[in-house]
Amino acid sequence: MKYNPDIRHRRSIRLRGYDYSQPGAYFVTICTQHHECFLGELVNGDMKFIVRGGIAYQFWLHIPNHFPNVELDEFVFMPNHIHGIIVITDKFTLKKPTLGQIVAYYKYQTTKIINQIDDTPGLRIWQRNYYDRIIRNQNTLHIAQQYILANPLRWPKDPHNPRRGGVSPPS
Q: Which of 16, 25, 33, 140 could disulfide-link to 124, CB 3.0 to 4.6 Å?
């Protein structure tokens, strides 16, 4: 199909021209499909995983095993999203994955296993995209780490929290 500039096209939210495989720290947010709270429940500031959330958590920890030049910094799992800092190092490896490839691998693997366990082939677990912020210095890294650590405290006011304001969602 020939490109037509008059048709709406999805615009990339990535920084144009930036090499997302270069060493550095990246703050990412990955949201569940439709912001559904199916990773678990936040109880007194602690995440209580259900099966899906436990699988997602274990695969998150596994990312550096699959990508030897990747390290994980602070991260937090919430009922409907993940915030984490992914660090691509300059370790010599044959694979130089981009941030997008790392996130895509994570989403693919978790979706595959969750759908096998739940017997829900084709069910979308994650939103199509993800959000990222390039961390360019120690100050920005510290701010991102503090944001992640404080995220459970903000959950009661999160617009995607079905119990926002202490009211239970309709059954």
A: 33
> What distance in Å separates the CA atoms of residue 122 and residue 81, rounded to the nearest whole number?
20
28-43 pLDDT, tens digit per residue, is 999 999 999 999 999 9
Once rounded to an integer, what is the mean pLDDT over residues 48-57?
Answer: 96
CA geometry: angle 81, 86, 88, nearest 5 deg: 155
The number of C-alpha atoms within 13 Å of 161 and in the hemisphere containing its C-beta is: 18
**Domains of the chain in sequence order:** 24-156 (3.30.70.1290)
* Structural tokens at position 101: 């490839």
Sequence letter at residue 105 = Y
**Distance between CA 81 and CA 39 in Å, rounded?**
8
C-alpha 109/C-alpha 113 separation (Å) is 6
The encoded tokens of residue 113 equal 């296993």
pLDDT in tens, 56-68: 999 999 999 999 9
Confidence band (pLDDT; 50, 70, 90) for 95?
confident
